[in-house]
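Following up on my earlier thread - several people asked me to post the actual chain instead of describing it. Fair enough. Here it is, all 141 residues.
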Amino acid sequence: MNVAFFLKPKSEVSFLYCDTPLPQALDIMQRHGYSSVPVIDREGRYVSTVREGDFLNSLVRTDGEHLYLTEAHAAETRCLQDVLHDRDRNPPCHIGIPIEQLLCRTMEQNFIPIVDDRGIFIGIVTRRAVLNHFLSPEETR
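Reply from S.P.:
Thanks for posting it. Predicted structure:
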């Protein structure tokens, strides 16, 4: 068995481009009801995963005692790449990842972005897909 068995292809996945304006990106996430979404560049390479909290963190900063809000017009001019963290907390896996490693990753992440040899985003593997396979009765496989 390989990762492709669990793969939800890019054509069926909601994703955002890293140059998407913040208001539009947030609107898309809210409309679809997602709390996190893969982010790719215009060449199709996986960049990161954006979470709802990333939007909040981009609008609020603190000095330890006080909260400071970013002015609304400043937030409207920013792009998604401006709020992404340097370290992706949802790193992608290569399409050839061993199933055992994929299982370990599903314990930590709701979905795992999958990339090809060139780093091109090709889809996701959801925790639900993996659990459904391993928890379903033998005869349904």
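The longest strand covers residues 46-51. That should answer part of your original question.
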